[in-house]
Amino acid sequence: MATDTDGPIGGGETETERDRSGNAVVNWMENLSEAAYAYLLLLPAFALLTLIAFYPLIMTFIMSLREDRTRGAEPLGGFVGIDNYVDILTGNARVARQFMDISVSASFPFLELGVPLLQQALFVTLGFAVISVFFETVIGFGQAYVLDQDFRGRRWVRVAIILPWAVPIVIQGMIFFLLFQPEVGFGSDLMQWLGIFGPNPLADSQDAFIIILVADIWKSAAFMALLILAGLQSVDRSLYDVARVAGASPWQRFKMITLPLVMPALLVAMLFRTMDAMRVYGLIESTAGCTTVPSLTCLVVEAMFGGTRIFATAAAVAFATALVIGLIISVYVFFFRDTEGGLY
Amino acid sequence: MFDDNDSAREDDGVRGTDGDGDDNGDSDGVPEHWKRTREMTDGGQPADESRSGILTEDTEAELDRGPFQQWVADSISNPERVYRSMFYTATIFFLFTTLFPFYWLLMVALTPEGQQQDIILTPNGFNPGAFIEVFQVLPFHWYMFNSFVIATASTILVLVIGSLAGYAFGRLEFPGKTPLMLLVLIISFFPPAAFFIPLNDLFNTSFFLLEPITGDGTLYNTPGAMVLPLSAIFMPLAIFILTTFYAQIPDGLEDAARVEGTTRLGALFRVIIPLSAPGVATAGVLTFIAVYNEFFFSFLMTDGQPENWAPILEGILGYQGQYEVMYHLMAASSIIGVIPVAILVIVAQEKIVSGLTAGALKE
Fold first, then answer.
1. Do B307 and B294 reside in the same domain of the chain?
2. For residues A145 and A227, what is the distance between their CA atoms, to the nearest angstrom?
3. Does A205 reside within a domain?
4. Exposure of B167 in the CB half-sphere (CA atoms within 13 A)
5. Cα–Cα distance, A199 to A194 (Å, whole number)
6. Same domain as B112, residue B191
7. Burial of B230 per CB tally in 10 Å (0-12, 13-18, 19+)
8. What is the rounded distance in angstroms from the CA atom of residue B220 to the CA atom of residue B204?
C-alpha cells in the first residue's frame, strides 16, 4: 500500500518535457514517470478498497482474536489469541448452530457427530458448494452447448436461458419460497406425493437443503452457461471442419476439440461459482431461513445480530470462512495447474 | 456489428449442414470397417436402437417398416438427425425449466388474494389488479427508484475508478504489478460478513465533513452506505475485465493520439476507452446486474424504509406483513422487480457474451 502514496514523488524525469499551455495539474501528470503515473491511476481504486475492504478485514481479524463480553458497555474483552477459532472448530462456540461439531471416539467409525451433519454450518456449506457447482457445471455446459449452435430464434432462446442469472437473489428466493410453501405452491404436494419431502419442507433441514440446491442450480447454471458459452465462441470453427473431414463423430469432436479448448473458461467459471456458493446467505434467508439451513455466512450474521453480542465469535467465523474458501481455491489451483491455458 | 457476426455464423451453419450431406454421400465410398467404427463411436445415447437397427436393416431390408423402425433406419443413414432431435429435446427442456418458474409466478400474481391453493398451470380467477395494488400497499416504485440510483451510481463509480486501474494494470509497466493485482483479487475470498462489523461502525460514525449532506454526519441510511461497499466488492471483477480489454489495444493508436497532442488522461478517455467499448459495456452491465441483485448489504445497510434509500429487496420482503402474508403481491412485486434486468439482458446479451469471449476469458 505504501507504494501507492510515495510513487508519484519518485518520478518525473523519464518523459521529455512538454511545453504545453495546459494547467499545472496536467503538466505535472504529463511529466510523471510511467511507474509513478501507474500508481497515480491506481490510487482511487486502492483508496476505495482500503477504506471498504482492507481496513474492515484487518479490524475484523483483530476482533476475532479478542474475547466475547456479553455484559457491560464494551462488547469486546481482552486478547485471547486463537481461542475463538479453537471454540468454533471444536463445537464449543456460543452460536445457535455449530461451525462444526465432530469429536473423535473410540469405536467405529471413530468420529462422533455432536449434532446432525446438516446442522453443522461447515458441512452444509461445503455440501451445498460441491453439489450445486457440480450440477451447475453439467447443466450449464449443456445449455451453453445448445446456445452455441446456429438455429432460428437463437437470440430469444439465449435470452430465456440466461435470464435466471439476472434475477435478484431475493426474487429467486421468493419464487422457490412460494413454490414450496404448502399454502401456495404445488412443489410441496408434488414432492410429498413422490415420497421425497415431509409435510413442511421449508422447516425441515434436509428438504430445505434440497430446495435451496435446486433454487441455486436454477439460477447459477445460467451464469455457468454464460461463461462457458463465451469460451465455446472463441473456439476456432475451422477445427470442427477439419475433424469432420477426418470422420470424427460429434462426440469425438466434443471430447477432442471442444472440451480441451473450453477447459480454461470452464475452470474460471467453476472457481467463481465455488467462491460464491461458499458465501451463500441471501437465498437461504429469503426461503427457509438460517435456522433450518445454517450456512457459514448465516452463522456470522446470526452471531452478529442474534442479540447475544458474540461479535468476536462472529468475526472468527467470518475469517474461518475466508480461510476455507482460500483452501478450496488452492485445491483448484493445485489440481488444475497443469491444465493447458492455466487458471489465470 | 453483432448482427453481422450472427449472420456470418448462420452462413457457417448452412455450409456445415451441406458438408454433412456430402459426408453421407461419401461414406459409401469409405471402407466397410471405417463405417463400423463410426457407428460404434456414435452410439452415445441411441446405441441400442442403432444396433438393433443394424440387424433389422441387414436381415430384413425388404420388409415394410413401421414408423419407429423407419426413424431408426433414417437415423443410421443420417446420424446428424439423432443429434438434431437430441438438440431440440435439450433446448425445449432447458427452456421449460428456466421459464416455468416465471410463468408460475405470474399465475400466482394473477390469482385473487386468498385463493392461492393448487395453482399449477392456470390462475384461480383473474385479478390483474395485483400489479397496481403492489404500489398502493407499499411505495414499491420508491424502492425501485432507490435500487436504480444505487445500481447506476455504483456502476459509474466502478467504471471510472476501474478504468483508471485497468489502464494501469493493462498498459503500464511498474514494480509490484502482480502483487497489487493479487491484492485486488483476494477481496473475493471473503464473505461480505467479514467486512460488515467495522463497516457498520464506520458508517454509523459521525463525520463533521458529511454533516451538511446527510444531516447527522453518518452514512447509514444514505445511498453511500450501499454504493461504497458494493462498488468495492464488485470492482475486482470489473478491473479484471477492463485490464484484459485495455491490454489488447495496439500501442500505436495511443502513441498517435499522444503525438497529436492529447494528454495522458485524454488518450485514455478518447482513444483507449472508446476502442474498448464492448469491454466497458460488459463490465458495466455485469456490475449493474450484480449490484441490483445483491442481497447482503442491501438487506443490512439501511433500516428498510424507502425514504432511507432501502432497495427493492426490502420492498419485496415487505409484503410478508406481521399479520397477513400477501402471496399474490409478493409474486407481482417479484415480476416487476425482474423486468428491468430482463430488459437489460434482452438488450445486452450479445454484448455480454461477445465481451466475455473477446476479453475476460482469454487470459
1. yes
2. 12
3. yes
4. 31
5. 12
6. no
7. buried
8. 6
Evaluate whether residue B270 is within a structural domain: yes
Count of structural domains, chain A: 1
Check: pTM over 0.95? Answer yes or no. Answer: no
B315: number of CA atoms within 13 Å, CB side?
Answer: 31
Q: Which three cell numbers stand for residue B86?
A: 437430441
Terminal Cα-to-Cα distance of chain A (whole angstroms)? 23
Q: Is there a single domain that holds both residue B91 and residue B12?
A: no
- Domain containing B282: what range? 133-360
Q: Which of B44, B172, B327 sits opposite A37 (nearest CB)?
A: B172
Per-position pLDDT tens, chain B of length 363: 444 444 444 444 444 344 344 444 444 444 555 544 444 444 444 444 444 444 444 444 556 667 788 877 877 777 777 878 888 888 999 999 999 999 999 988 888 877 777 777 778 778 888 888 888 888 889 999 999 999 999 999 999 999 999 999 988 888 988 889 888 878 877 778 788 888 888 888 777 666 666 666 677 778 888 899 999 988 988 898 888 888 888 888 888 888 888 888 888 888 888 888 888 988 999 899 999 999 888 888 888 788 888 888 888 888 876 667 788 888 899 999 999 999 999 988 888 887 777 654 544
How many of the other CB atoms lie within 10 Å of CB of B34?
A: 11
Looking up residue A191, the CATH number of its domain turns out to be 1.10.3720.10
C-alpha cell at B47: 446405441
Instruction: Please state the three-class secondary structure of B98-165 as a single string.
Output: HHHHHHHHHHHHHCCCCCCCCCCCCCCCCCCCHHHHHHHHCCHHHHHHHHHHHHHHHHHHHHHHHHHH
A5 assigned to some structural domain: no
Residue that finishes a domain, picked among B128, B163, B183: B128
Q: Which of B8, B31, A155, A154 is nearest to B16 (CA)?
A: B8
Query: Could you tell me if residue B304 is inside a domain?
Result: yes
State yes or no: cis peptide before B123, omega within 30 of 0.
no
**Tally of domains within chain B:** 3
CB contact under 8 A, B361 and A300: no
Euclidean distance between CA atoms A232 and A230, whole angstroms: 6
Amino acid at B100: F
Q: Which of B44, B151, B192 is nearest to A255 (CA)?
A: B44
**Which domain does A192 fall in, by range?**
117-335
Does a structural domain hold residue B74?
A: no
Residue identified by cell 446470526 is: A302
Nearest to B108 among A37, A55, A178 (CB): A178
A·B CB contacts under 8 A: 307
| Residues of chain A neighbouring B261 (CB-CB closer than 8 A) | 20
Q: Which residue of A has its CA nearest to B353?
A: A230
- Chain A residues lying within 8 Å of B358, measured CB to CB: 234
Distance of alpha carbon B318 from alpha carbon B139, whole angstroms: 10
Residue A37 covered by a domain: no
Closest by Cα among B284, B278, B296 to B354:
B278
**Strands A76-79 vs A102-104: parallel, antiparallel or unpaired:** unpaired
